[in-house]
Amino acid sequence: MEDMILMQNVWKAYPNGVMALNGVDLSVKQGEFVYVVGQSGAGKSTFIKMIFRELKPTKGKIFINHKNIATLKDRQVPYFRRKIGVVFQDFRLLPKMTVYENVAFALEVIEEHPRLIKKRVMEVLDLVGLKHKMRSFPDQLSGGEQQRVSIARSICNRPPVLIADEPTGNLDPETSWQIMDVFTRINDQGTTIVMATHNREIVNKLKHRVIALEGGMIVRDEEEGDYGYEA
Ligand SMILES: Nc1ncnc2c1ncn2[C@@H]1O[C@H](COP(=O)(O)OP(=O)(O)OP(=O)(O)O)[C@@H](O)[C@H]1O
Predict the structure, then answer these.
(1) Structural domains in the chain?
(2) Phi and psi for 23 in degrees, rounded to 5?
(3) Is 20 in the pocket of ligand 1 (CB under 6 A)?
């Protein structure tokens, strides 16, 4: 299988001198599902932000789908981001837009054909089980439903890679499992998923590759690994 994400000797120093990543080497193949675990401050968010070019490495190369994004010009970043879906802990929906409009907006900004937009929005809302809520506004939805809208929005452009930073961080256990069902369906369609998480139960029950970070270094990388830290 092809490398979807390839990191070569990636370092990140923040302006205050903190070294958040210390020489990370990693290959993630097309279609893999990877959990990123580690204690608070280990570098998970920094690692995740590197993949969608929210941050630039201080040193090293990051290839997404064979393109080195470390050397992208700022003006090329929006185009690159079309290839990456991103989901956050806090959903980040637009409050004055309906569910349908929140998802459609992501396709409108990239000037997708209107007829295709409608078809695709209905497809992804169906995938996340929220077609019946398409006219609702975010504040009329539960947290889990809002997160499913945010996931629908992140994948409506069919990105090959989906990145999630603590997607179940604000959700109760049962709702978290609904989110994982959606991720499983998306992964089954061939999308590569990288998910930073503190959710021990999910990592231990829904087995996938586990990468553990400590002090900005990969200290463990296991197929079907465990969460591995004390509660
Ligand atoms: N903008 C920033 N400026 C300076 N230092 C930062 C910045 N963001 C993070 N750091 C530092 O970099 C290190 C890694 O932080 P990071 O947020 O990547 O960890 P994390 O594993 O995601 O933690 P958490 O689980 O608490 O979210 C920490 O020491 C943190 O204090």
Answers:
(1) 1-83+159-231 (3.40.50.300), 94-158 (no CATH)
(2) 75, 60
(3) yes
Q: How far is the CA of 123 from the centre of ligand 1 (A)?
A: 36
Calpha distance 194→170 (Å, rounded): 18
Token pair listed for 64:
């997404």
What is the per-residue pLDDT across 101-128, written as a single tens digit (0 to 9) for each? 999 999 998 888 999 999 999 999 999 9
User: Cβ(14) to ligand 1 under 6 A?
Assistant: yes
Pocket flag, ligand 1, residue 215 (CB < 6 Å) = no
Distance 42 CA to ligand 1 centre (A): 7
Which residue pairs from 121-124 have beta carbons closer than 8 angstroms and sit at least 24 positions apart in sequence?
121/152, 121/156, 124/152, 124/153, 124/155, 124/156
Q: How far apart are CA 171 and CA 158, in angstroms?
A: 25
Q: Quick check: CB of 17 below 6 Å from ligand 1?
A: no
ipTM of the complex: 0.96
